[in-house]
Amino acid sequence: MKIIKLSVVCMVMACMAACTARVQKPTLFLAGDSTMADKDELEASPERGWGQVFPTFLDTSRICVQNHARNGRSTKSFINEGRWDTLAARIKPGDIVIIQFGHNDQKLNDSTRYSDLDAYKANLTRMVNDVRQRQAQPVLATSVVRRAFTDGGQCQNTLEGYPEAMRQTAAELNVPLLDMNQMSAQWLEQTGEEASKNYYMHVQPGTWSKFPDGKVDDTHFNEAGALVMAGMAAQAIRDAGITALVGCLLPEPAAQPIYTTPITAH
Q1: Residues near 226 by Cβ (< 8 Å), separated by ≥ 6?
Q2: What global pTM score does this model have?
Q3: Calpha distance 108→160 (Å, rounded)
């Protein structure tokens, strides 16, 4: 009789564990630079990363978001500082990792960040392999553009060969690609040189305490710009047919921006 009772208890516990596993939400991890990163001076500065507002486009009852992107990081520094290892250690089967670097890999005069195109692709390959080894889904994303125009009003490529190297890596490794470089370039040209200032860090003097004299920054976004880029990411996910994420996207973005919850430091 005791043996039967013990068997029943074991079966119940096993069922409970299975149910818990089934209802456990997947996590979307974000790895990237300042264009994606959370900003912590929300009252003093208007700067926002697109990853910071990406929950605006997600059904957060179905997926968690951890934004590990950090200002100034390249594939090289993100790995060498141990940030990638911290992220990788948290990945569980069924999770998704979006990887977007390039703005800082091109900084030739900074040996802590610079990666030539071969090293850049090798670093991305390592990240993809690490994600796959943990039975999770890697996704590569080309870098969003800086606000720079040619004399003819077209988007100027300031990122050299890094977006194309990202595309090549995605094709070679058969990884879904979010071509946000192409999408943001098209958006920038359609929006125009003057109107696009409203989405980047063109801060008027006396409006934000961190920049009493104002600021002109054509790399980073205010909230409106971050939401535009996050919306592009959502559309790119749909276009790429990334099943694990498409089912977590809202039909329409939330009425008010939703920010990520800052992760604990590694």
Answers
A1: 48, 49, 50, 52, 53
A2: 0.90
A3: 12
